[in-house]
Amino acid sequence: MSKKLEQLRRQGMTNEGFREGYDARDGLIRLGDMLRMAREASGLTQETLATKIGMSQPAVSRLESGFGPHGPEMDTVMRFVHGCEAELVVSVKSRAGSASPDEKDAVMAFSTSL
């Protein structure tokens, strides 16, 4: 997250309504951060990546921000990641603390590459 966005986030977190909304969107914001890091690691600008995958630069920016009325569709995330010459890995696992110590060995964990 950019320094400016982080500053705004910290400022907003002092407001209860903002905090509740932010918590609800946290996963999408973290996904956006990961997408931005993948693009930067591949050495592409938003504009270059957008051209490469047939999107507009503002659409790439929206994906990276994690904001918008809805989360991104999986095929859009896959296009973005593949445009960065990377692989999308999706995992499903039990939430931290949801398994008792006796069930630790039987915790659900699945992963696949797309």
The CATH architecture would be Orthogonal Bundle
CATH class: Mainly Alpha
Which spans have pLDDT < 50 for at least 5 consecutive residues?
A: none
Number of discrete helical segments: 5
Structural class: mainly alpha
- The helix content is 55-70%
- Fold-level CATH name: 434 Repressor (Amino-terminal Domain)
**Separation of the first and last Cα atoms:** 25 Å
Overall description:
- The chain is mainly α.
- It has one domain (3-87): lambda repressor-like DNA-binding domains (434 Repressor (Amino-terminal Domain)).
- The protein has 5 helices and 2 strands.
- It has helices spanning 3-12, 16-41, 46-53, 57-65, 74-83; strands spanning 89-93, 109-113.
- It has a two-stranded antiparallel sheet.
- Helix 2 (16-41) crosses helix 4 (57-65) and helix 3 packs across helix 4.
- The protein is globular and about 40 Å long.
- It starts with a helix and ends with a strand.
- The model has no long low-confidence stretch (mean pLDDT 85).
What are the salient characteristics of this protein?
single chain, 114 residues, mainly alpha, 434 Repressor (Amino-terminal Domain)
Write the layout of secondary structure elements.
Blueprint: H1 3-12, H2 16-41, H3 46-53, H4 57-65, H5 74-83, E1 89-93, E2 109-113
Antiparallel strand pairs: 1-2
Short structural description:
This protein is mainly alpha-helical. The chain is built from 5 helices and 2 strands. The two termini are 25 Å apart.
